[in-house]
Please model this.
Amino acid sequence: MTIRRGQDWGAPGALPDDGVVVRSDAEARDVVTAARREGREPPALGLLGGDLCRTLGGTGDEPRLRSPQAMTFSCDLGAVLLDGRLHWFVASLVARGPWWRGRAWLAMNAAWLDRWNVAPRAHPDDGLLDTFDARVPAGQRLAVRRRLALGAHLPHPAIAERRAKAVQTRLDRPLPVWLDGTPVGKARDLAVRVEPDALTIVV
Model:
């Protein structure tokens, strides 16, 4: 069930025998994509690394995943149509040019993007994606980057933030897109939506 304000989230619970251990968001996305393409539900995922793992407070300790100390969470899944083709992501979608120059557009299910706390208000089970349409002038980019590690870059007049179940956007031109850190080609039209409670995650 999607988390509500004031409710406890997660419960003690080890990774089941048919669960899959993954070491990155990209590996998690591969498992989810394979399951969806085959028309079945994704297996429970034990996270040892990645931005979603960090957001959930994961330790990267594999024996813990199958122990009584493990924590199990219900998490949302991101889905996106990129120029009409369906993809999924567990932590993040990033559309940007080289070196983050010019416009960048992000959809976050996790709070973290590598070393940056890009979406400090993001919650992986609130039924929403946190999206950011950034057009930061060149003279301000360094200052924004310095604040990203602490999540102190928001609010910013050049970064439009939105929290929604579904968002559509058309970029000025096709931009390279990364899903969970994996490049998937260029796209101009993006339609993202959240699939609530679609994943069982263990850390």
Remarks:
- Residues 25-37 form the longest helix (13 residues).
